[in-house]
User: Fold this.
Amino acid sequence: MKQMKIYGMIAIMALNACTTMENNRIKGAWELVSGNLHLENDTLPLFGKKPSGSLIFTENMRFNVILNDMDVPAFHTEDRSQGTCEELRAAVTGSLALYGTYAVDGNGDFESQHVIGSTFPNWNGLDRDNGQLSLERKGNLLVENLPLENGGMVVIEWRKISDR
Assistant:
């Protein structure tokens, strides 16, 4: 009986390995199309008029996200630790980066993520499942929805960068 349990666990691990490696619908490199905050009566761009960003899902179940507002003015110094309060505020509100691990379900769709680190320190160590963060693949687009406590919704659209 104990051997049957062990064989069953090995079979499940093998099935998960196949799912994560071969049937992963979100792996690859993605470029930012748009990032907006949707409120009851308003839509606000999160990263300015010229948002830029990159999202990478690797085959070994790691992810990296970088988002930034390309219109944030340059600092008046080459030492970023010497920026003015205004420069530092603009840099922080105009950018976000995070990295960690992720999982997909049996269909290869996003299931969950674990944030290892983020430029927003409150997200360090954060775990989110697809009820708290959803990613839906629509052809060469990936649409990310993050519901907020205030009833708003962050919607970020990514375009697949073709493999060359």
